[in-house]
Design brief:
The chain is an all-alpha fold and 127 residues long. The chain has one domain: Topoisomerase I, Chain A, domain 4. The chain is built from five helices and no strands. α3 packs parallel to α5. It is elongated, with a radius of gyration of 20 Å. Belongs to the SAA family. It comes from Anser anser (Domestic goose). Keywords: Acute phase, HDL, Signal. One of its GO terms (biological process) is acute-phase response.
């Protein structure tokens, strides 16, 4: 009986430390949740800053922060950014050019580009 219990415990330890689909899936989900939070934080900061011309910077920063978490974060950033732009292009009336520029900033940040490329002059260093 003791040998059986030791075998079961050893199996659990080995499986838990192995790179299996369950741990990868769990990591993906955690990264996605963190990426969604990063995107929300960038949006809140953009609203708080209320700085003319800072929109693209916050798009790039939110995607950059989310993608740094891993594949799940990058996935969440892409889904949220695409959904927001699809909704915004139909509602805001800003047009296709603004949507294209936003998506360019989103992709730049998601692909590891420095968000400061889009940082406008005068934006407080807090952001």
């Amino acid at each position: 009986m003791r040998l059986c219990i030791c075998f079961v415990l050893l199996s659990v330890i080995v499986c838990a430390s192995a790179d299996n689909p369950f741990t990868r899936g769990g990591r993906f989900v955690l990264d996605a949740a963190g990426g969604a939070w990063d995107t929300l934080r960038a949006y809140r900061d953009m609203r708080e800053a209320n700085h003319v011309g800072a929109d693209k910077y916050f798009h790039a920063r939110g995607n950059y922060d989310a993608a740094r978490r891993g594949p799940g974060g990058a996935w969440a950033a892409r889904v949220i950014s695409d959904a927001r732009e699809n909704w915004q292009s139909g509602v805001s009336g800003r047009g296709a050019e603004d949507t294209r520029a936003d998506q360019e900033a989103n992709a730049w940040g998601r692909n590891g580009g420095d968000p400061n490329r889009y940082r406008p002059p005068g934006l407080p260093s807090k952001y």
